[in-house]
Prior knowledge:
Elements: H1 2-11, E1 27-30, E2 36-42, E3 45-52, E4 79-88, E5 91-99, E6 104-114, E7 117-123, E8 131-137
Antiparallel strand pairs: 1-2, 1-8, 2-3, 3-4, 4-5, 5-6, 6-7, 7-8
Amino acid sequence: MLLSLLLALALAPAPPAPAAASASLLGNWITPDKSIVEVYSCDRAICMRIAHVEATVGQSFDGLNPDASKRDRRLCGLEIGSGFAAKDAAHAEGGKLYDPHSGNTYSGTLVLSDDSTLRLRGYMGISLLGRTEVWHRAPSAPESCKS
């Protein structure tokens, strides 16, 4: 009887593989100032770095950093988000966001509204007192990190 059961299990069709989720926080995102930020996995967390700086931004260095020794860093390649914990495929929280336009660092959350829209919320203290910025998925990866 055991042999029959094993044989039946071996010949049974395999269950279908779960469909891969097409939506992901990871990828390249266009910011409101037309720069591109890469959202990627890092050390069991989610991080972000600037992959392309739009020429019209007028800023190519981290000149507003509160640490004077870091003000000569190029924005291109600069990590601006770290430590986000993925709660599910469309939501991450608990991370830190650095805004090179102000030199401030905020707590943050990432929420994928749909496959092409990312809502980034930065705040100090409580989320209610923060600001949300909407990013759109880049149609392709930037050719290189230009500033």
